[in-house]
Each structure stands twice: as structure tokens, then as C-alpha cells.
Amino acid sequence: MILIHKISNLNNIVLHRIMTKLLEWVSAASAFFAIWYSLIGGYVKHPMIENNMDVILISPIFFLILFGVYAVTVVLYRVFTFNNCEAAFLELQKQIKEANTELTAKGLKW
Amino acid sequence: MAATGVDSEITKSDKYSILLPTYNERENLPIIIWLIIKYLDGSGIDFEVIIIDDGSPDGTIEVAKQLQNLYGSNKIVLRPREKKLGLGTAYIHGIKHATGNFIIIMDADLSHHPKFIPEFIEVQKENDYDIVTGTRYMNGGGVYGWDFKRKLISRGANFLTQMLLRPGVSDLTGSFRLYKKDVLLKLVESCVSKGYVFQMEMIIRARQLNFSIGEVPITFVDRVYGESKLGGTEIIQFAKALLYLFATT
Ligand SMILES: Nc1nc2c(ncn2[C@@H]2O[C@H](COP(=O)(O)OP(=O)(O)OP(=O)(O)O)[C@@H](O)[C@H]2O)c(=O)[nH]1
Ligand SMILES: [Mg+2]
């Protein structure tokens, strides 16, 4: 595919890192699901696990929702606290006027 | 800001080439040049401004010539091209003609204020950074003239990028930066993307190649003259570039 073609083009650069970010995510997810599967599949036996089986079953969805709430909260917080540079705007307006005056006086036409 | 500190630390051989790509910036160009001169002339900083105009239909080049006559051809260098060939190649074209050992890249539309250039230079010197990048997202930085939607897209895209790429830099899509010239050349060589996502790839490649990066908070005032564009195509371009870098770096 196009992607593979591009990867080979960039081989010299890609080799600087052994793992791509994608691979890091895939391995973390695999580790999580390996544990999860060993719990729901009954490979590990413990009364604690059997008693909380329904919680364990839905835990991936639970974590996903938790993360979604976190992401939305963080992004919205940052949107509302995004610094409005009113002062920078006013300063620029003033400087534009100064520049116009000075450049016109120096004979610039535009 | 701490102009005396900058003065004393400037090595005589350091020269800064400011690349100004322009396309229909007739209104903005005289102002940006006036501001650059205002903040850099007489500060002991050796610099040149390289204007790369892509045959702007509004006659930007004609104004650029007047500015060159006014400020001198050692300060204002014109390297025009016949037609609109895009930003990425405009930078490459500019670097080829740059005589400085440092390159400063900024937009000519007044959204990047030249008053930050001395700060970039100072921060670069403090830690001998390979790159110093302006950031709108750090304390002291910010934007003017953005509505809720634009802020949401910007913050959302930044959150996603930070999560997926963990670049160690807070602003990846900003294009107000200072580079060591040889570093910039290496980065340009290793970048594959075109268009404005080029900026994002540059900084990710810089991390990959272990270049050191400093940050300076900047205020970003949306363009006053001319149309601003942030449409569906930009968002799609961004998403593609993000996924590409996620899968390959
Ligand atoms: N030489 C050259 N300059 C360009 C080209 N496209 C854009 N520019 C310039 O590059 C700078 C950044 O472009 P902008 O159009 O402001 O892009 P932007 O900041 O992503 O988008 P806006 O929201 O519209 O400001 C400006 O100084 C433009 O004049 C091009 O094809 N060739
Ligand atoms: Mg702009």
C-alpha cells in the first residue's frame, strides 16, 4: 500500500525508533486484553474474580467511557481558558497605524 | 525584553535569515517589515529578510521592491517565484538563498508578531537549542479573534496529537519558529507531507532525530487583512498527517 511504500522511503528515519507510536498502543492494548481475557475465560481462579465477573466483563467499556469523559472535560476546560489576547490585538492595531503613517511619509505607496 | 542580555551574548558571526513567504500580502507586507525593522534594527542582531513571493496577483512584489529601496538590499532580499508553488517549496527556495546560520520562519499576515523574535533568539542561546518554536498553548501565549468553534477544533486537535504522538512540544501546527540552518535543511529533507501539516511533521521528525527544542509563548492575532481559512480540507489533511505520523514514527 501507499503507507508501506512511504515507510520504505523513510526507512533511514524510522529506524531511529524501534517502536512506532501505533505499535506502542497495540502492545499496551494487547497486554490489557490478555489480562482481561485470562480473567473472563476462567484461566485464573479466585473467588474475588468470580464474584465480580460482571464488573470485569464490562470493564473495557467502563474505561473507555471514563477516558471519554476525561478527554471532553480537558478539551472544554482548555477551550474556555484559552487566553484571549485582547492587549496583543490593540497593540497591533496601534502599530499598524504608526507604520502606515511613517511609511506613507517615507513615500511608500501600496 | 532583556535587550541588553541579548546584546551581550550575540556572537558576531551569528546571522538570522527571516523567511517571509507571501501570497497576496500587499496590505500586510509593509507593516510586517516595519515591525521587523523596529524590533531588530539597532538591537545588535544581524539579520536579513528574505521575501519569497509566488507571483501574487495583487502585486505584492511591487510593494516588496519599494520596501527594498527604503531599507536596503542587504536587509530586504527578494527571491520571487513565477507562480504559486506552495509553502513547503517556498521555504526550501528561501533557505537556498539564506546567508544566515539561523533561519526564522514566520507568516507575513501579522498573526506572528516580530516582537517575539528577540525572545526566540535569547531562548535559543540559553540552551543552545536546535529549534525554538512559538506556542499558543503555553502560559503567556494565546489567540485573538477565534470563535468557540475554532478554539474547539484547535484544542481538540492538539489534545489528540499530544495523546497519539507525545511530541514533548505543546504547539505542533504553529509555524513561527527559529532553526539552526543545517538542522532545518535536514528536517526539510526528511519530511514527506505537503501543505500546512508540513509544520507538524517537521517538529515530529525533529524529536525523532533527537534535536533539542525550546518553546516561547506567543500571542497569535488572526489575520487582519485578507481571508482566513480553516475548512474541511484542512481538517482532513490534518487527520491524515496525524494518522500517518502515528503509524510511522
Ligand atoms: N510564497 C508563497 N507563500 C504562501 C503560499 N501560500 C501561503 N503563503 C504565505 O504563507 C503564510 C501563511 O499562509 P496563510 O494563508 O496565512 O495560512 P494560515 O496561517 O495557515 O491560514 P490563515 O488562517 O488563512 O491565516 C502567509 O504569509 C502567506 O502569504 C504559497 O503558495 N507561496
Ligand atoms: Mg495565517
From TrEMBL, chain A:
Keywords: Endoplasmic reticulum, Membrane, Transmembrane, Transmembrane helix. InterPro entries: DPM3 (IPR013174). The chain crosses the membrane at residues 25-44, 56-80. It is a multi-pass membrane protein. Its main location: endoplasmic reticulum. The keyword Transmembrane helix applies. Pathway: Protein modification; protein glycosylation. It comes from the Eukaryota. Stabilizer subunit of the dolichol-phosphate mannose (DPM) synthase complex; tethers catalytic subunit to the ER. Belongs to the DPM3 family. This is Dolichol-phosphate mannosyltransferase subunit 3. It comes from Pieris brassicae.
From TrEMBL, chain B:
Pfam families: Glycos_transf_2 (PF00535). Residues 17-185 form the Glycosyltransferase 2-like domain. One of its GO terms (molecular function) is dolichyl-phosphate beta-D-mannosyltransferase activity. Keywords: Endoplasmic reticulum, Glycosyltransferase, Magnesium, Manganese, Metal-binding, Transferase. GO terms for biological process: dolichol-linked oligosaccharide biosynthetic process; GPI anchor biosynthetic process; protein O-linked glycosylation via mannose. Its cofactor is Mg(2+); Mn(2+); Ca(2+). The keyword Glycosyltransferase applies. It catalyses: a di-trans,poly-cis-dolichyl phosphate + GDP-alpha-D-mannose = a di-trans,poly-cis-dolichyl beta-D-mannosyl phosphate + GDP. Its main location: endoplasmic reticulum. The keyword Transmembrane does not apply. Pathway: Protein modification; protein glycosylation. Gene3D superfamilies: Spore Coat Polysaccharide Biosynthesis Protein SpsA, Chain A. It is an enzyme of class 2 (transferase). It is found in: Endoplasmic reticulum. Transfers mannose from GDP-mannose to dolichol monophosphate to form dolichol phosphate mannose (Dol-P-Man) which is the mannosyl donor in pathways leading to N-glycosylation, glycosyl phosphatidylinositol membrane anchoring, and O-mannosylation of proteins. Belongs to the glycosyltransferase 2 family. Component of the dolichol-phosphate mannose (DPM) synthase complex. This is Dolichol-phosphate mannosyltransferase subunit 1. The lineage of its organism: Eukaryota, Metazoa, Ecdysozoa, Arthropoda, Hexapoda.
